[in-house]
Amino acid sequence: DIQMTQSPSTLSASVGDRVTITCRASLTISSWLAWYQQKPGKAPKLLIYKASSLESGVPSRFSGSGSGTEFTLTISSLQPDDFATYYCQQYNNYPFTFGQGTKVEIK
Amino acid sequence: QVQLVESGGGVVQPGRSLRLSCAASGFTFSSYGMHWVRQAPGKGLEWVAIISSNGGDKHYADSVKGRFTISRDNTNNTLYLQMNSLRGEDTAVYYCAKDNSYGGWYLDYWGQGTLVTVSS
Prior knowledge:
The complex is a heterodimer of chains A (107) and B (120).
Chain A: E1 4-7, E2 10-13, E3 19-25, E4 33-38, E5 45-49, E6 53-54, E7 62-67, E8 70-75, E9 85-90, E10 97-98, E11 102-106
Parallel strand pairs in A: 2-11
Antiparallel strand pairs in A: 1-3, 3-8, 4-5, 4-9, 5-6, 7-8, 9-10, 9-11
Chain B: E1 3-7, E2 10-12, E3 18-25, E4 34-39, E5 45-51, E6 58-60, E7 68-73, E8 78-83, E9 92-99, E10 107-110, E11 114-118
């Protein structure tokens, strides 16, 4: 199985900060990577697919990059609505696997 | 608009069975792959299973293989997860999700989840 490792596990930041979350795959997954945002008690929401494609309706402050085994999610200017937990997921090989999550907290 | 509504969760004893359902609407159900993803209390997301649009191809996480069965009814736009030999570690919120299929198997719509608690 492909292991997905996110860093950091927790991130403290302020409104307006630029935030970067990293996701590493244990094997190459080309660009078959998605990013999701989850708020407490809610279902996850798709932000980015195919490593860098922005899902319709998602603010442009979110961006994704990378290919192969190393990927990043960047929030260019953190907004109050962005405090949440973020997950990466590979969909290159079965079983599809998620990273352990990165919680973005208010500093 | 796309809607996915899970049902069938509840409290069940270890070793027993439970069947979850996911009613889909707002899209052509028979054209898309469907998934189950679960989240144990206070933990991260765990992908559980996928079924292809016509039901002919299925894959599972190692943790549920041989115990869980994913299926679908394209006439009634419903996805199922049959869970047998349940264990305490299966306690989680179970989400059904639709994939994009044509653009890749990322999960573009999710249900609100149904809680399964395995306890004696």
